[in-house]
Design brief:
about 100 residues; alpha+beta; 3 strands; about 20% strand
């Protein structure tokens, strides 16, 4: 049954199918209901197989904090740390 007053928030936007699969698994294990919304037409995907459809994962507002905590690890794994040489080299050059 559709609940029109359900207050949903976006906790993840991705075009990576693996991220989406992990996110869905984590939310299902935690018993957090979720909804997936697509952002671009599938026609574009048919034209170029390398394009991936962007999706938004939404959860009820009252479960947002829990969902974000679960998905935080997934998002951090995708973050590229700055190279040590960039910051370290500048500071060493200033101190010398």
């Amino acid at each position: 049954m559709f609940e029109p007053t359900l207050d949903l928030v976006v906790v993840l936007e991705t075009n990576d199918r693996i991220h989406l699969a992990f996110a869905k698994g984590l939310l299902e294990e935690a018993g957090i209901p979720y909804f997936i919304l697509g952002q671009i037409a599938t026609l574009v995907q048919d034209v170029d197989g390398f394009l991936h459809k962007w999706v938004r994962v939404q959860v009820p507002r009252d479960r947002e904090a829990e969902a974000r905590e679960l998905l935080d690890e997934l998002l951090q794994a995708d973050t590229i740390p700055p190279e040590a040489g960039e910051d370290g080299g500048t500071e060493a050059g200033e101190k010398a």
